Automatic annotation (TrEMBL):
GO cellular component, one term: cytosol
Biased composition (Low complexity): 126-136
Keywords: Iron, Iron-sulfur, Metal-binding
An individual GO BP term: intracellular iron ion homeostasis
GO molecular function: 2 iron, 2 sulfur cluster binding; disulfide oxidoreductase activity; metal ion binding
SUPFAM superfamilies for the chain: Thioredoxin-like
Region of interest (Disordered), ranges: 114-146
Function: Monothiol glutaredoxin involved in the biogenesis of iron-sulfur clusters. Binds one iron-sulfur cluster per dimer. The iron-sulfur cluster is bound between subunits, and is complexed by a bound glutathione and a cysteine residue from each subunit.
Protein name: Uncharacterized protein
InterPro entries recorded: Glutaredoxin, GRX_PICOT-like, Monothiol_GRX-rel, Thioredoxin-like_sf, Thioredoxin_domain
Length: 260
């Protein structure tokens, strides 16, 4: 039975990748320890890994990476949200899956894994896959249902971390001046926060405007409640300098991690 190995350093990652034969499917799960969807995905992946026997040479290799701790690796694979799955063979990215859909993750792995290792998994997942495909068709034909599902996702997303920043770009590369200023405020106050790059997901970018009834970005959310944009955050801090103090930690880099 295959098991998931934790990669804890860039050196360990490079060593692991270089040790794999070209035929091995490398399944990389990016996660954040504070994000509930990541804990759920960890269970899903552990179950899936157990369905793939150990072979020589290995047909699959399963690893997990803390997206925050190893940000260089995260950025190399354009990880903008967690959980985030990357499937690699012989150095080439075959597919990525963002989010916590167990069905999408299973289907992606099965489509690229060797048939020998995936036989049991394919059998177990066939009915689920068919149901999911039907659901997707139904969603496409029903805009209201699609909107409900998006709002459900957004409701989970704004609660992914106690402090969530929806911004243009990433903390290391903001794509607008307002987002850059917001990141600066959070950094100056040593706030630990999750972020979402709305430029990487147009569905979230457009949907969150309606969900929040707030038309612009960046948006700062605290404990699942919208605080507002840059001006509102500045006003909050002017009237209450300790506004962000409950979320302050010892500064460590930019204190941010991509979230889903």
């Amino acid at each position: 039975m295959s098991k998931i190995e934790e990669i804890t350093s860039v050196e360990a990652w490079e060593k692991h990748v270089s040790s794999l034969p070209p035929s091995t499917l490398l399944i990389v799960s990016f996660h954040a320890p504070w994000a509930a969807p990541c804990a759920q995905m960890a269970t899903v992946l552990s179950t899936l890994a157990s369905e793939y026997p150990l072979t020589e040479p290995p047909s699959t290799s399963w690893v997990k990476i803390n997206a925050e701790e190893l940000s260089d690796i995260s950025e190399a694979y354009n990880v903008t949200a967690v959980p985030f799955l990357v499937l690699i063979r012989n150095g080439e990215v075959l597919e990525t899956v963002s989010g916590s859909s167990a069905v999408k993750v299973r289907n992606a792995i099965e489509s690229h894994a060797s048939k020998t290792g995936a036989a049991t998994a394919a059998h177990n997942g066939s009915a689920t896959s068919a149901a999911n495909n039907e659901a997707e068709v139904t969603t496409e034909e029903d805009p209201e249902k699609k909107k409900q599902e998006l709002f459900k996702r957004l409701g989970e997303l704004v609660k992914a971390a106690p402090v969530m920043l929806f911004m243009k770009g990433t903390p290391s590369e903001p794509k607008c001046g307002f987002s850059r200023q917001m990141v600066g405020i959070l950094r100056d106050n040593a706030v630990k926060y999750g972020f979402f790059n709305i430029l990487a997901d147009d569905e979230v970018r457009q949907g969150l405007k309606e969900f929040a009834d707030w038309p612009t970005y960046p948006q700062l959310w605290v404990n699942g409640e919208l605080v507002g944009g840059l001006d509102i955050v500045k006003e909050e801090l002017e009237s209450n300098p300790d506004f962000l103090k409950p979320y302050s930690v010892k500064a460590n880099g930019d204190g941010s991690v991509a979230a889903s």
